[in-house]
Amino acid sequence: MTRNASSATRVSPRSTLRRRLDQFGIGLAGLCMVHCIATLMIVSALGIGGHFLLEPAIHRVGLVLALVVAAVAIGWGAIRHRRAAPFVTAMTGLSFMGGALAVPHGQDEIVLTLIGVTLVSAGHVINLRAAR
């Protein structure tokens, strides 16, 4: 009896990895937000850094990284807990982020990106809570 009780409270290495991926996804979304806001402030106020901070490759790489992390962490969680909310929330956010790549640099891009990363981050949070 004691053996079963102790094994039920153990955290499997897989769930720890999935939890860390969700946490990484939340951190990545936060870094994206900081990048967007810092870019707006630095380029607007100081007129410097535009050639690097506004580089389209940064945004494409960020979207691919966010997509991979969300697909693994949230997809894995959805299989385990059978809840659609984390998946739907994150995929909506990724769609906004993808839409941001289709508009010229400026306010529209920033608004779409911020909405997107907020939704992706919320999807990771919902996924973490659903796994508990």
TrEMBL record:
- Organism equals Erythrobacter litoralis
What one GO molecular function would you report for this record?
mercury ion transmembrane transporter activity
List residues traversing the bilayer: 24-49, 61-79, 86-104, 110-128
Keyword Endoplasmic reticulum found: no
Which superkingdom is the protein from? Bacteria
Point out the signal peptide segment. none
Q: What is this protein called?
A: MerC domain-containing protein
Q: What keyword terms does UniProt attach to this protein?
A: Membrane, Transmembrane, Transmembrane helix
Q: Which terms in the GO cellular component ontology are assigned? A: membrane
Q: Return the InterPro entries for the record.
A: Mercury-R_MerC (IPR004891)
